[in-house]
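Worked example

This section walks through a single chain of length 761. The input is the sequence exactly as stored; nothing has been trimmed or padded.
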Amino acid sequence: MKKKKIEHYTVKEALDFHSSGKPGKIEITPSKPMTTKRDLALAYSPGVASPVLEISKDTNLAYDYTSKGNLVAVISNGSAILGLGDLGASASKPVMEGKAVLFKRFADIDSIDIEVDSKNNDEIIKTIKNISCTFGGINLEDIAAPDCFIIEEKLKEIVDIPIFHDDQHGTAIITTAGLINALDITGKSIKDIKVVVNGAGASAIACTELFKNTGVKNENVIMCDRKGVIYKGRDRLDQWKSKHATNTKFRTLKEAIKGADVFLGLSAKDALTKDMVKAMAKNPIIFACANPDPEITPEKVEEVRSDAIIATGRSDYPNQVNNLIGFPYIFRGALDVRAKTINEEMKVAAAQAIADLAKERVPDEVASAMGGIRPTYGKEYIIPSTFDPRLISVIPVAVAKAAIKTGVARKKIKDFELYSEQLKNRLDPSVTVMQGINTLIKKKQKRVVFADGEDENNLKAAIAFKSGGLGIPILVAKKDLVKKKLAEIGYNENLDIEIVNSTDNKKRKKYTKYLFKKLQREQGLLERDCDKLVRNDRVIWSTCMVSCGDADAMVTGNTRRYSSSLEKVSTVVNARPGEIIFGLNLVVNRGKTVLIADTAVNEWPDSEQMANIAISSARIARLFGMDPKVAFLSHSTFGQPTTERTSKVRGAVEILNKKKVDFKYDGEMQPDVALEEIFKELYPFSEIVGNANILVMPGLHASAISFKLIKSMSRAKVIGPLLIGLGEAIEIAPLRTSTSEILNLASVAAYSAEIIDYEKK
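Given that input, the structure is written out below as tokens.
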């Protein structure tokens, strides 16, 4: 039977994702304390009267006293939802919520989705006008053409906040950035190039207009729609198409493309043929942006032209045209200067900033965030990666400057260097870290064992690992039980994932022999004892797979206690030479990322062990692109008070002093001293106070309590515990671990297998 392709998710899984816990993807949380009667009095009556009275005198003060300055409305009527068509306002809500999530994830902008149940443009315009005073900006989404043009143009006339239709202008900005760099690489002048645009919808028209505003001559652009070339005198052209009609004898795309320097496609699959590509000018620039399948694939272009630069809307090809590179950061810059509109100058500035960023050398920390990849400016890198962490510190600055220069900013920014640094702190580092890891392992395709293959969350994680292209999963499970579980969660039973178990006699004998050789002296076990372990314990079996070279890495857990899983793993694998085994958690909160150790293994480490934990943690921090700053934590700070237990912590510092390590460290200190800058003036002699990003705990009790409290009671994100110092790339998931957390651990295990030089037994 032919094996079927694994989908990224099932319909049931997607529905469960959106309905589990609090339905939907967004919520509203208070930004001020609401714990006491006084807090409530300040937040509402009578305290709220004070800002009310001030705003009544000057409405611009709403930016100072309310969330308006960081609030965007995502508005749709559902008339053109993704590629699904007109499905109505209510059906568009999941998409609009998703857009709101993207605003938050990439630019720390709060968003509220608003679905307007109307096809009447006047009604929609009136609705948005009447609520516009609530928001700092309006993002129009999934509104069919030509209505989207009419609505946007009218709103720009009557409201004094940015109106941005991302389907149009987001695409336009990214393609323009790509065009600027493609012309630079090919040595062509923007004033001389001939451009052919295939497609005449909202995106195509917006791209064409921004191309022209950037320098492309009007007479050098030919636009085509389903009926062919849009030429002057053609019947039944609306005002938007007629604006781009040209005097030309060409009537078809095939005719128009001859000698063209640039092809911009926002149309349909296979609209551009290899013969058409052949007919283009020297060093052609091809933007095939139809989704999910482009007008022509890069492979087909390469078959006929080696001199072409090509971009698509897909992530599996170089030069992805992705609106995520634009709209969050454009709004970020516009909001931060309280802009009245997003004008053409701001769009051009954004495009130029994106183009310039691609030309810059990718620094080490960004290369780390991109999986160790350091792309260089050229034919296959004309547009920065969607996940380039520099985007947020570059694009908003350019947009803000353009807004100020053109007089549409209500607020000036005095120090742009400081502003850029503030923007960097808005990013969620955990996402950046995992993106870097995933980018690397996609290229390496490691074989990762999922030891608990019959567990639902492990099974889903294995499927996601494969479908996401992260590597090759191997399930340790019984095939009939996996088949049953797949049916329960909505997947096709013909799962194209390798399934293994102890019924494989050849491997069973191999692993028994390996284990007996290791344990006969360590534990005095007989060969039949080892055979029993291999046969009956899937963790033992899985660990042997890695140790014997049948897999690169492994993830287990979720079905048993962490200590139990670690005991099984440790039966087969020892610590790496010169290392200590410990647990390390990555904790990410707003503007702060820290590593906490040891969170899983050593109950009461001595001074030497604490020092070694610090050394290994510093090494891991560097792998994550962090500059390690270690704080040894205690209930005391620099000897106040001094106890037997604090002496142990100070002993670790003294050991590092003798070792002369290449990272900063200090202790002992309390956690608030390590993390909060207000304590710097009290302890000016310490570079770690207020700056620590690695917290070495005095004992397992303290670390376990700390990070689990953080995970349970705060909005911080916690990754791990990661198992450090083990002789193989193995991670253990605690009880009740989610699918996404298991997936992260599998990715980390695959990453470790690639970057760490494990001593093979």
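What to look for: Residues 166-186 form the longest helix (21 residues).
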